[in-house]
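Second opinion, please. Please look over this fold, written as tokens:

===
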Amino acid sequence: MTPATRARVRALLVALTAVAAAAAPSTANATSASVTPACGAASPGFARCFSLVRTDIDGGKGVRGPNAAGGPTAAATALPSGYGPADLDAAYNLPSSGGADQTVAVVDAGDDPKAEADLAVYRQTYGLPPCTTANGCFSKVNQQGQSAPLPADRGWGAEISLDLDMVSAACPDCRILLVEGNDASVANLSKAVDTAVALGATEVSNSYGTAEVNGLQSYSASYGHPGVAITVSSGDYGYGVPNWPADLTSVTAVGGTSLSRAANARGWTEQAWGNAYGGAGSGCSAWIDKPAWQTDENCPGRMVADVSAVADPLTGPAVYDSYGGYPGWVVIGGTSASAPYIAGVIALAGNPERYADASYFYGGTAGLNDVVGGGNAERVDCGGDYQCNGVTGYDGPTGNGSPNGLAAF
């Protein structure tokens, strides 16, 4: 597909999505929903993933929209519910190409045997170039970096699909490396990060975490690799004790927003995500000293987060996952959506060497949307402070803001 043809297809997809959103009430902009965590609570020494699945949306299986078999007239609906790549490009003012020299790794627990096949459905639906093992774009390995044996299923299939689809949405020309840890233990996930870097990843996305406690410091080195950008989800349960490894100063901690279409100059509105279904993780570290580049007033330690993107499951992206009991097309939110998306945006810009830590986002906010409004204090109140509310300038749930083009990356 030529760049010109791809651009035309993406323009058509935007139009079709708008039509579908207007016609169907159970889209990503619904005001009520049934939402469930994709991964259960974690035992000590283990991490949980931060993806929230809309169980009230069943989009069926297979390619949808204008790229369905037989053309658009053969599709039952124009496009799946939830935002697609063209929607997110429009919301975040991003180009639809770039990053061909970048390899984005996603680190997850356990195997999803349908990961590549499900990724193919997603990419074909939205007119993205194929990303397969055969063409060298997609690779799947175990935590030792080998294609076999792969670990057992750990119930992270929806998380894996979300990660792969969000990287694809942000950077369709990037190579994707899926590194599957033996399980969700901190030790094995950390090993998988080191393996991703050893295999040449330029960005590594980690959509998981555990509440910070003493004893995790021994794994911190795995999340600091000069020349490689490492993104980490801030969490889905609002303000409180921050999550590790998002609290590390060597990573970009990614918060979350609620994103909706609007009749304004941007065409979209965004606020800090927090509702009955979850909220972007934020908090002040009790274990990690405040880095010199972070200057917020009311937290003496490392403050989470640094930057943000869509995460609210009510305004979430479309994801294709046909493994582990899900119907195929679903809407999934959580900061497990925003972390791989920001990793893809960094790859799209092509400057991973800037992210030995998150200081680059604190050198000026040009190129970021300042996310004002909303908050994540559904469970624990921070007294109206920036640590849990979307305010002008820096705040905990959304950091310095969401992407507005590539100038900040």
Remarks:
- The chain has a mean pLDDT of 90.
- Residues 3-23 form the longest helix (21 residues).
- The longest strand covers residues 278-289.
